[in-house]
Each structure stands twice: as structure tokens, then as C-alpha cells.
Write a structure and sequence with these properties.
The structure is a homodimer.
Chain A (H helix, E strand, L loop, with lengths): L10 H15 L7 H8 L3 H7 L3 H23 L6 H9 L23 H27 L9 H22 L3 H18 L16
Helix pairs in contact in A: 1-2, 1-4, 4-6, 5-6, 6-7, 7-8
The structure holds a DNA duplex.
Chain lengths: 209, 209
DNA sequence: GTCTATAGGGGGATAGAC
DNA sequence: GTCTATCCCCCTATAGAC
């Protein structure tokens, strides 16, 4: 049993892992080095051997988290569904409204002014924005999204929608509000993508291919 | 100079005022009783004479803040502009993107689970939601907003949009993203509003902050 | 690399004089 | 009502043995 060739999880990895969890659960400021140590079954000596400070280990953990989620996004947006459908699917991803976004939740802490923390957070959002903007641009090009709608602006709106959804759900202690926010936006998007095939003569001629 | 009949600002009021500012600046958890005392030129004795705990004074301050802002909302939504214009105007209110919403910023703290804090936060958002939903409902009734768009859902979406706008602006350290999020939503709304009047004022929101 | 022991400072609150 | 003085605990490390 014990003789297996084990990857041998180092204390360093355990510490990083514990920190990732804590950053999501409680954020940066409310997370103490002691909390990390307990969650990782480690002692101060280990923590400060591998990392110079709480900020340093948080940076490492957050960099890892961002890399993970950015990679997952690549997968998500890889398919070849119609671009607007991709956007819809992204909005409808299963999310734990109360848990919040592990990046967005840090945005309101004063510590977000540490570039070490802000950089990975911004990197994650930038990846989302890029994917969404690309889909929306494509949708506009192929005629499923109306002109006059700026894909870049819209992408930011949708990211904000999700982040705000967490805020509202937590404030009302009601997960349903998260879904409501998403549904409202989906309905708007549907209106904005309603084909030009109807009597509305807003200039478009493109039909579904 | 000093002989004027002064309203005599009590230490209690100073403490509340200082707490309101701090809750906005740094949030609940990062605000220490000592911070409050310094900001209010008061001493522990005063604080704990008037309030039983940090939580108690935060509750009092937050209740006051919510009452203020709910009253301001009443004024805002009092005019008799077309309902959809009211909504647009609300979205275009001047906001300090980096400062964030003094209610929404608390939503991600673990302490939001204290009902004392959550109640005023939810009360504020509920007021916004009610006003927006009423406008949107009216707009749908008078034909300026398409059927098929649920006013309740949409109201939640718009609140989320704003709250998320703060998150994104802070994450990217870029106020322009707040405006971008708003613009994106305004464009969507414009598409969803039926241009029954010949004079097409939709989409021409003209000013950016 | 990981441990135990310890340190300086601030957090949240109380006691009691005035 | 407001003040000064003080308390205990936890936060963020640091030192040094193993």
C-alpha cells in the first residue's frame, strides 16, 4: 500500500492548495497564516520556508487558480457551436451563487491594490472577456447579433452581470436572484439577436446558414 | 464664534458618521473600533457607552446609510420622464467606480451573514429593484419595452450589472470598464425598446462619464 | 524541509475615575 | 457621557533545533 510510487505531495503543495481554498472561502484579508497552516497540516516553519510572507503565498495560490480557470475556459470555448449559443452556454454554467467567484470576491478588498493579487484576478477576467468578445464579434459578423451592439462593451457587461449576480444573491441570501439576473440578460440578448427575417427592416439581409 | 446655538454634534453622532465612512472605505472586517475612535475623535469609553459592540455600531451606521440612499432613490424616481428614460438615467448616474457601492462591497465579507448587516444592505437593493421594476413594467405597458422581457428579471440584471461594474473596474484598475459595462447594457436595452416613435432617440445615449 | 518556541503589535472590549 | 488604563487573544511573522 505505502510502497506505491507516490507523487509525494510536498508541504509546499499542500500549503498552496490550502491557500487556494481559503482565498475562495474567506478572501485574503480574513485569511490568517495560522488558518493556512491548519488547513494544510503544516507549521509556521514550513510556510515561511517556502514563502516569504502571506502576500507571497497568496500570490502563488492565486496564480495557480487563475491558470487553472483560464485553461478551463479554453476548453469551454473550444466547441463549434454557434457563437451566440456559446455565450448563452457560458452564462448558464452551473455556479454556486453563495460561494461567489474566487477572483471577483477579492476585488473589494483593500489588498487588491497589491499588484501581486490584482494581476491574476485581472488575467482571469481578461480571458473571459476575450472569449466572450470573440464570440459576440463572430455573431455580429454572421448576422445573428445586431449591428450597433459593440461586442467589447457587451462582453464587459456580461462579466459584470455575473459578478453582480453573486453580490445580489449574497445580499438577499437568495440564490434564485442569481438566476434571475442571468435570465434577464438572456432575454435581452434574445431580443438583440432576433432574426432580421421578421418584418423589422433594420437592414440586415443575412439569414441563417 | 463658539457662542452660536449649535446643534451640538454628540459623540454618538460623530461615531456613527465615522463608521459610515469607514464601512465605505474599508468594509466591516477591516474596520477596527480603534479606527472608528480615531476617525471620530472619540475614546473607547464613548464608543462602548453608546454601542455594545463593533457589530452594533456598524448596524446603526448601515441602517442610517440605507435610509439616506433609499430616500435619495425616491427623489430620483419621482420625476415624470418616460419610464425607460428613468431607467437609462439611473444607469448613467455619476458613480465613483473605484470607491464601489457602500452596500455591495459588504456582500462578499463573511460578516454579511450577520443579519444586522445583511438587512440594511438587502433593504437598499430591494428599493432599487422595486423602482426599476416599476419603470420597466410601465415601459412594457405603454409599449416602449417589448413583451417577453420580464421586468422583475431585468431589474435584477441591471442592479447586478452595476455591482459587477465595480468589481471589474477595480480588478482592472480601470474606471472606463465601468462605463463600458453600462454602455453595453444600454445598447441592449435600446434594441429591446420598440421604436414606436419616428424620432429614434434610442441608442443615442450621447454622453459617457 | 519541517518542526517548536517566541515576539511585537493590533483587535475587540471592560473597569472605573471624572 | 467621556475619559484613561488595561486585558486577553490572535495576527504575522522570526529564530533556531532537528
Amino acid at each position: 500500500m505505502a510502497g506505491r510510487i507516490m507523487p509525494k505531495v510536498s508541504k509546499r503543495d499542500q500549503l498552496i492548495e490550502g491557500t487556494k481554498e481559503l482565498l475562495w472561502e474567506v478572501g485574503y484579508e480574513a485569511m490568517s497564516p495560522r488558518d493556512i497552516q491548519e488547513k494544510s497540516a503544516a507549521r509556521p516553519g514550513s510556510l515561511y520556508h517556502h514563502f516569504s510572507s502571506k502576500l507571497a503565498i497568496a500570490e502563488a495560490a492565486l496564480d495557480e487558480a487563475a491558470a487553472e480557470d483560464i485553461a478551463r475556459l479554453e476548453q469551454l470555448f473550444l466547441g463549434n457551436a454557434p457563437p451566440l449559443e456559446m455565450v448563452r452556454n457560458y452564462l448558464l454554467l452551473k455556479r454556486e451563487a453563495f460561494r461567489g467567484c474566487r477572483f471577483g470576491r477579492l476585488a473589494h478588498e483593500a489588498s487588491i491594490e497589491h499588484e501581486e493579487l490584482r494581476r491574476p484576478v485581472a488575467a482571469y477576467f481578461d480571458a473571459v472577456r476575450t472569449h466572450l468578445a470573440r464570440c459576440l464579434k463572430q455573431a455580429r459578423a454572421d448576422g445573428t447579433l445586431r449591428m450597433g451592439l459593440d461586442p467589447e462593451n457587451l462582453a464587459v457587461s456580461l462579466i459584470a452581470l455575473i459578478q453582480g449576480g453573486y453580490v445580489i444573491a449574497r445580499s438577499f441570501k437568495d440564490e434564485a436572484l442569481f438566476s434571475q439576473a442571468i435570465e434577464g440578460a438572456l432575454a435581452l440578448l434574445a431580443e438583440a439577436s432576433r432574426s432580421k427575417r421578421a418584418s423589422n427592416s433594420s437592414g440586415g439581409s443575412a439569414q441563417r446558414s
